[in-house]
Specification:
alpha/beta; seven-stranded parallel β-sheet; 14 strands; 36% helix
Amino acid sequence: MKLLVTGGAGYVGSVVTALLLEVGHEVTVLDVLSAGHRDAVPAGASFVEGDIHDAARVLDPSFDAVLHFAGKSLVGESVQDPGPYWHTNVAGTLALLEAMREHGVDRLVFSSTAATYGDPPSDAPLRETDPASPTNPYGAGKLAVDHMLTGWARAHGLGAISLRYFNVAGAHGGLGERHDPETHLIPNLLKVATGEVERASVHGTDYPTPDGTAIRDYLHVRDLADAHARALEHLEPGTHRIHNLGSGGGYSVREVLDAVRRVTGHPVPVVDGPRRAGDPAVLVAANDRAREELGWAPTRGLDEIVADAWEFTRKRVGT
């Protein structure tokens, strides 16, 4: 298939692009490089530097489908300055959908987020039938896009799948996390192991969990890429479906810390601190629907996630 990948110079988008090329698809990447990296676009993909609002000048009727990763993704930033999130994530997606309709491209895989659910009412894994009540503009914008996709499917015959997930980590094919600022736990712990920083912080040690630290879902980026590739094969005209991508169980902060120490051989000192406001004790997603409808389930565990991220990090800093 001939595919457009928006945001394909970013972390997840670049790995998905690499996988799509590996299985024989023709891929064009559209990325403004505000957070992505030109050298992350895999060899073999065509590259167009441009904003998501520019999709109309990239698409043409020869494209079979779009995989949509472009967007801003920092929760705290979205609260402090929501305007760019609505402009890029929501209005930008609207421009993309209009461009797709103009050129007769009627299949879309949307990389969404489990932040659409907001604060869960219990510790049970989140399911697609749980109410969506986002607590920040980032999650609200992603949910707005889901509503758009549902409307487009009904009105214009779009076939779309939204994939909702939490934390992604690991590396694949020399592609890994290079965020600035870096807000994710595993790469921040690895910065301690490389000596870039002296210690990391643990936010909250008194949660009602087995070891007192918060439990979160972690997926290997290669598993996540596989889910997007599978979704591409299950798009149905006039239908928008939502799939959660989760482990169903998750890992605590202490378990992640132990894995980083085990893999790197570094003591990784940390400072225990208070909980961050609004952080729930457990935040994980179920994957039953993805198993049943996409034939997908995560295959890589925590140690492999950390090991691949560690290899990428060492090459990045030259250790």
